[in-house]
Amino acid sequence: MAPIVIIDAGHGGVDPGGGNSAQFTEKAMTLNISLYQYRRFQELQIPAALTRSSDVTLQSEDRTAVVRNSGARYCISNHINSGGGRGTEVIYSIYSSAAFPRLIAEELEAEGVPNRRIFTRTLPNNPKQDYYYMNRETGSVETVIIEYGFADNPVDADKIAKDWQSLAEAVIRAFCEYANLTYRPPQTNPPAAGGGGNANPGSGNGIPSTGGGSDVPDWKQEAIDWLFEQGLLTNEDWRNKADTPLPLWAEAVILKRLYEKLKS
Ligand SMILES: [Zn+2]
């Protein structure tokens, strides 16, 4: 079956990319992200392809030919930025709309990386052609270039090194929303509880415990788990923080997702 989406891990082989930090190289991190997204699309039964699945060199002509000939309608090209900045950037073609880039930026923002800009860029001598070859040479495929953050910004670099899976997942959510395909969050194992008690439904009596701080009663944990099941809360860090207040932006994201869900 022809893929709907093709995932492009930027750079590779002799080309490490420019977005390198002490913790990762751009070519390795974009491959991590791309392979993760490929697996997730398989789980969601969304036909997907990759431009590369290992550390190989791809010339730009070969890369764009793979995309053009893939039969896919969309291409997600993964990159890590550098050069003094902070946050995500999404670059799209002058021949497509900003709708998908906006959703990507929103979902990445929900994971804690602010958006720096969403933009198109044309060749200096030809305003009818895209500047970046992934936008210019991929034919009718709708290609977005995603820069997940700046490798030379310590906050971005730490976030990418630690949470790249959440960032990769954010793009899956954005894609499903944009392409109008059913999204389901990844299968997660129940949190490992010391006493093994809190994954047991029905044992909660609905009465808030006044006991020890880390011993979260079932009714609290079940409510939190429900948020994840529904895709309303996605950053796994929150799963074990029952008594930690969410920042306002995160509450806003949850309400917005709930609203979108009810509306559709
Ligand atoms: Zn790059």
TrEMBL record:
Q: Disordered: where is this region? A: 187-215
Q: What is the lineage of its organism?
A: Bacteria, Bacillati, Bacillota, Bacilli, Bacillales
Give residue spans, biased composition: Gly residues: 193-214
Q: Does the keyword Ubl conjugation apply?
A: no
Keywords of the record = Hydrolase
For this protein, the record's CDD domains field holds:
MurNAc-LAA
Q: Which SUPFAM superfamilies match?
A: Zn-dependent exopeptidases (SSF53187)
What is the protein name given in its UniProt record?
N-acetylmuramoyl-L-alanine amidase
Domain of life of the native organism = Bacteria
Domain MurNAc-LAA: where? 64-176
The record's section on InterPro entries has: MurNAc-LAA_cat, N-acetylmuramoyl_amidase_3
